[in-house]
Amino acid sequence: MYYSISRPLNLLRPTSLVSHPTYCPVTRSNVQPRLQPRRYSSSVAQAHTTQLRRSYLYVPASEERMLQKSLVTPSDVIIYDLEDSIAPSEEGKIVARERLAEFLTKTPADELPHPSRIAVRVNSTHTSFFERDIVSILTIPSVRTLVLPKVHSVEDLEMVTDAMEAFGRSQGTIHLVASIESAQALHNIGGIAAWKSVYGPEKGGELRALLFAAEDYCADTSVIRTASRQELLYPRSHLSVAARAFGLEAIDMVCVNYKDLDYLRDECTDGRRLGFSGKQAIHPSQVDIIQSTFVPTEQEILRAAKIVHQMAQAHAAQTGAIGLDLSDEKGGKEMIDAPMLKQAEKTIRMARAAGLPIPTLP
């Protein structure tokens, strides 16, 4: 159950934050309509793809041992968690918040993961913990990404951006990851994906990705999750398409059976086929398989290299399409034109970013 989004925003009440020196009320008198179309940019999408973010490993912020282990994990992104992996008590949240702040500020910078790999999942805007999470986390320079749970509508993002504008900092843009966890969120996903902060990215944050929280979604919709994943095909496909429509990354669900690595690999392959750019992990043992699956295969790279090479020759000869030899026993050929070239170029970029060998063709 979650609260109505129409409730007053606690962080705008001066009495709750009188000790915070930078607090100032947010006024609405001159604010323009908030929902503005996001202009898709191929260069932005390319930049996001080139810096691979395949695995998103959750680390409970209350566990000192796990915090220390996060210093050596190869995960592309590490999500330090203040939400579901933390006891839902006031004391539990305070301990996690303070422990994480101490860890990220007192650990030598050269030992911490690069800021581009650090994310923090705060508590939902529908809880009493949210505003204190924001006040604490925004004081930590190494945090560049916030994972926002239970984003059911644009209004939830508005509450976040109001908080960021009120307690923000000047060290650069905070990237936001919106977690889609309910039927309402899936219904509103177009508006969520199109959202941009009225305060601009530097003060109000910038939406970078949509994340699918399968277990929360099943709990909300009464969908029964099975090993086939068939019942989740629609929400996963819908999220992937909505994210790509607005130049965002799409992050697939957690594989809860973290002991079965063969099933994990199958689920990763399935997610990649659906267009996801990465996947959440709940155990370090999942990271390597996720990262080795969410990259092009050797066969895909070879095919892409052939397409790029032969299309360059075709364009030089003023030809717009080619027939690519399928190397099968039937002598089949595949028609290749501009859309396939675009896919091939993306494959080469991803392979290069992952450090995979790219064949040189004569």
From TrEMBL:
<dbReference type="Pfam" id="PF03328">
    <property type="entry name" value="HpcH_HpaI"/>
</dbReference>
<feature type="binding site">
    <location>
        <position position="181"/>
    </location>
    <ligand>
        <name>Mg(2+)</name>
    </ligand>
</feature>
<feature type="binding site">
    <location>
        <position position="121"/>
    </location>
    <ligand>
        <name>substrate</name>
    </ligand>
</feature>
<dbReference type="GO" id="GO:0000287">
    <property type="term" value="F:magnesium ion binding"/>
</dbReference>
<dbReference type="InterPro" id="IPR015813">
    <property type="entry name" value="Pyrv/PenolPyrv_kinase-like_dom"/>
</dbReference>
<dbReference type="InterPro" id="IPR005000">
    <property type="entry name" value="Aldolase/citrate-lyase_domain"/>
</dbReference>
<protein>
    <submittedName>
        <fullName>Citrate lyase beta subunit</fullName>
    </submittedName>
</protein>
<dbReference type="InterPro" id="IPR011206">
    <property type="entry name" value="Citrate_lyase_beta/mcl1/mcl2"/>
</dbReference>
<keyword id="KW-0460">Magnesium</keyword>
<dbReference type="GO" id="GO:0016829">
    <property type="term" value="F:lyase activity"/>
</dbReference>
<feature type="domain" description="HpcH/HpaI aldolase/citrate lyase">
    <location>
        <begin position="54"/>
        <end position="284"/>
    </location>
</feature>
<keyword id="KW-0479">Metal-binding</keyword>
<dbReference type="GO" id="GO:0006107">
    <property type="term" value="P:oxaloacetate metabolic process"/>
</dbReference>
<keyword id="KW-0456">Lyase</keyword>
<feature type="binding site">
    <location>
        <position position="216"/>
    </location>
    <ligand>
        <name>Mg(2+)</name>
    </ligand>
</feature>
<feature type="binding site">
    <location>
        <position position="181"/>
    </location>
    <ligand>
        <name>substrate</name>
    </ligand>
</feature>
<dbReference type="InterPro" id="IPR040442">
    <property type="entry name" value="Pyrv_kinase-like_dom_sf"/>
</dbReference>
